[in-house]
Amino acid sequence: MAIVVRLDERLHERRMTLTELSARIGITVANLSILKTGKAKAMRFSTLESICAVLECQPGDLLVFDPSLPPEE
Amino acid sequence: MNAPSDAVTLSRPLLHGLIVLNLLYALGLLVLFVAGLLAEDWVFNALGVRSGEHRPRLVLGMRAMVIVGLVAAGVVDRVLRQLAAIVDTVRAGDPFVASNARRLQLIAWWVFAGEILRLVIGAIAWAATTKAQALDVHVGFSFAPWLAVLLLFVLARVFAEGARMRADLEGTV
Question: What is the rounded CA–CA span in Å between residue B47 and residue A47?
């Protein structure tokens, strides 16, 4: 997957844990872990909106396109 | 407990009961077939076959029907077992899987085969009937089973699409 999720970096900047983020946006830690580790196949706009609101960032700060990575099958 | 989950809970023992009944039916047919070979006169007299020139033809027709009946029992067994497997996935809470779409398609083909066998039984009865004595089985034509076959094929496609959507949704956060 050539789309990279930079959730870890944003959390680190905000000194926030995944558990805290989970509690604030109402998405399970398990699901956020899937997102963080790049295993998610898709992301809802509502999820993106919640994360951006809590982490005070733009979608482009969270999602990056890396052409050097192999595309999804 | 609501009505649909009641129906799912009930359908499992019901289907397993039907599987056993169908096996008993097949066993009964097998016993009848073997008994007809070992004690032909006794069995076919008891079944009401009268003496005369027509008798061998009627006996042959009845034997052929028993064999077709055994094949039909096998078909019914396949349908019931596939249905039981689908019910199990519903109980497990995940019916929209590719294997269920495959199962529904198989059921559609088996029901189709069952209807063909019904027509074969009708043809046997017609061929074995003589002026002296008729092989009297009522195999009327009905649109309902053919409509069921069509619906099952459509449902199999719906399930395949549902399974695909479900797989898509699984990785969505």
Answer: 73
Mean pLDDT of chain A: 92
- Do B171 and A39 count as a contact with CB atoms less than 8 A apart? yes
Domain residues of chain B, as ranges?
3-170
Whole-prediction pTM: 0.74
Domains recognised in chain A with CATH numbers: 3-65 (1.10.260.40)
| Alpha carbon of A13: minimum distance to chain B alpha carbons (Å) | 22
ipTM field: 0.75
Low-confidence stretches of chain B (pLDDT < 50) are: 1
* Shortest distance, CA B173 to any CA of chain A (angstroms): 5
Residues in A 17-36 with any Cβ partner in B closer than 8 A: 27, 31-32, 34-35
Reading the block at residue B157, the tokens are 């496609």
Closest C-alpha to A3, from A29, A37, A38, A51: A38
